Structures are given as C-alpha cells and as structure tokens.
Predict the 3D structure of the following.
Amino acid sequence: MFWQDVIELKSFYASRIGQIACRVVRRHIARLWPEGGNDTIIGIGFATPYLRQLSGTPALTAAVMPGAQGVIHWPGAKKPNLSLLADEAELPFPDNSVDKVLLAHVLEHTDMPDPLMEEIWRVLTPGGKLLVVVPNRRSVWAQMENTPFGHGRPFSMSQLRRLLEDNRFTATASATVLYIPPTNFRFIQRWWDLFERIGSCLGSFGGALIMEAEKQIYAVKPAGKLARKRRVSYVPSAQPAMRT
C-alpha cells in the first residue's frame, strides 16, 4: 500500500484547508477526550496535528511514525523530541503501559491492519481508549488527491466498526466530520463552520470518520489469528526530518 510522505502531510496541515480540517477534527477529539490529566497518550501515523491539544499535562505524549512514512521532529525544534520511527505493527512500548492511542493517517495505508490492532490492544491499559481518524468512503474528500484523505483505502462506518470489534475493541462513540468541500477557494473556506453544522444534520458524507473504542479485557480472540513473536525496535528522530 502506498504511504504518503511525512513532508507532504506536514505541508497539507500548514495550508489553509489543512488548518480547517485540523480544527474540525480537533473539536470532535476534544468532545471525546476533554483533557489529558495524567494519561499516557501516543499517536500513531501522522497524528501530531491532533496530539498538540492533548500534550498539556499527560505523563507522556509521544508520536510514533511508521517507517514507510518517514519521521519529523515533534513538537518543535526548541523542545525535546517526542517523535520516533517504528514499525506500526511492533510498537516500542511495554504491555498495558498506554492509556490512550490516537490513530491518524495510518489505518488506510497499512497492509497490516490486524497486527497493528493487536499491538495497540497489547500496549493499552485495561479499559484503555483508542481513537481512530480515517477517510470516509462516501465522501468527496476520498475522491480528491489534493488532501491526505484522498489517499489509501477509505472506510465506511460499518467497516471501521467491524475491524475494531474483530480485534477485541468495543466502539463507544463515532462521528462523521469535514463537510466543507476540499477546495482552496477562500470564500468557501470562510464558511467552514456553517458547512459542519448543516452537514452533520443532513447525512454522513463528511470527509473523515472518527471512532472511539475501548479495549475489551475478557473478549475471546477470533479464530485463525495466531500470536506473533514481537520484535521491538525504534529509532528516535534526531534531525528535523528523516526518510527511510
């Protein structure tokens, strides 16, 4: 599966339409996770635009960027680096050590969705929370390649829910967002909040799906999935940008 380059992702979120998309998704994340407290939070994929609002007081907030995507220094050049390069199916964290995981710009690209879900389940604490942001199959955004939501494999809400449930997660909340067209026309971008309010009342055609799920403790693992020997390995980011 083709992965978008980390520089391209960073460039999109620096653009005006990218900032609008980030604002919309952040608003829904804030409703589900209003504050970090002392939670250990990690982002997987390119989750840094959304992690920023969660990095106030948690015990640890880290950004795991897959090797096929590349890695950049985060949260900033003058701050200690909290990003690392790692295989998305071999996370460098102990069992039951993470309270919350934010998944963005990874599930639609990875060829290993089940191993990825297994790793997230492993590192989450009992009752830990997973928040997934993926492109919506039914949206205009999924058809346009000028944004990250037009790349990779988009999902329907039922497909996303099934993937989570098949991997021992229970979906607890969901939302469809990004009803503004993915355009660079300023007069349309100016009304982004109106598009969101009207779109949320009319249907489920927004550009992104957001789903929160909880780690099940006593679920039975589906037959046919064999346990894998885990090899932990990671490379901290030492440069402003690094490509594999």
Q: What stands out?
A: The first helix runs from residue 6 to 14. The chain has one domain: 6-223.
